[in-house]
Each structure stands twice: as structure tokens, then as C-alpha cells.
Amino acid sequence: MKNLEKLRELILKEVDMTQVLLDYNVDFVFNPTLVDESQLRCPFHGDDKKPSARFYKNTQSMFCWVCYKTWDVIQFIMEMEQLYYVRAIMFLIDKYKLDTSSISDEPVLEPVTSINGKTISDKSVETKLLRKKIRDFRGKLEFDRYKALSCAFYMVMFKMFKGGDVTEDLKKLGDKINTIQIG
Ligand SMILES: [Zn+2]
Questions:
Q1: What is this structure's pTM?
Q2: Which helix (H) or strand (E) holds 136?
Q3: Spacing, Cα 168 to ligand 1 middle (Å)
Q4: Ramachandran region of residue 97, left (φ > 0), alpha (ψ -120 to 50) or beta?
Q5: Whole-number Å distance between alpha carbons of 111 and 27
Q6: pLDDT confidence tier of residue 110, bands split at 50, 70 and 90
Q7: C-alpha 36 to ligand 1 mean position (Å)
Q8: 28-68, pLDDT tens digit by residue?
Q9: In angstroms, what is the span from residue 62 Cα to ligand 1's centroid?
């Protein structure tokens, strides 16, 4: 697997969002190859009679006043093709035939299975339970809080895969989860 951040940088550098929008036949008010900015019909929020979105060539981004959202080329593909981030990256590389040979492969992390003779695994009851609890919060907590929580969980997992002792972290995370009230 290649470094995702580097693939992302490559895409943002090499793929012209103007072309991508044209390839998806979005309805521009002005020919975007001739102007720096152009209003367009937002392809995401249904019948957009009065073109609510604007494409900015300078920043290679699109903003819609109705969705109140900004897209870069990767986010645009994620939404258009209903793809997860990694898949959208692969999709763009494939579709626009980007040369990724300059980006080296990252070594795959091998999970550590024991610390001081004590067997650990992310399948352990504790992590399984925490993972489940966090998943259960999905849609019930504000997205930012949910994101922070699941981020913390994956940081703990990452530490564990690198061979760190995560007993304390798991306990802290567990305590934190127990204090969360929904609603
Ligand atoms: Zn919109």
C-alpha cells in the first residue's frame, strides 16, 4: 500500500478539477475553461434551478450555498461515486492514469501478538467491546464527538499494533465512554 497522504497530494497536484467536472457533465453557467470562477448547478441536492454552486479554479474547489459545503476533487468523487476516501483516491488515479511510481510502498505493519509474554490482540474482549460501544454511538452523538471518539480508539489500536502497551489507554477510553450520555 502506498502512502495515502502522498497519493492525495499527487491527485490534488495532477488532476484538474475543471476537467473532472466537465467529465461529469455538470451544468456550468460559463465555460469553466475560459473563466476563473463559474456558477454551476449543484449535482448533489436535487433540482438546482438557480445554479447554487460555484467552482473556483484557483483553489480547485466547489462550494454550494444550499448544501453549504465545499468539495475538492477527491470529496467530489467520493460523493458522486459514493466511495470511501481510499476508494475515491484509487478511482481518480485509475481514471486519470496518474503515475504513482515515484511514491514508494509503505511497509505493512505486522500486528504484535504479545508483550512480555502476555498475549494481546485487537480481538481481545476489551477492544471488541469498546469498538462495539463506539459504533453504537454512531448517529446518536454529534458527528464531531463521534469522530473524536473513534479517532481515539484507532490511535489506541495503532499503538497496540506498533507493540505498545495499551492497557491504560483502553481503561481511559472505557471510562470516557461510560461518562457519555446520549441526548
Ligand atoms: Zn448543493
A1: 0.61
A2: helix 125-137
A3: 45
A4: left
A5: 49
A6: low
A7: 20
A8: 999 999 999 999 999 999 999 999 999 999 999 999 999 99
A9: 10
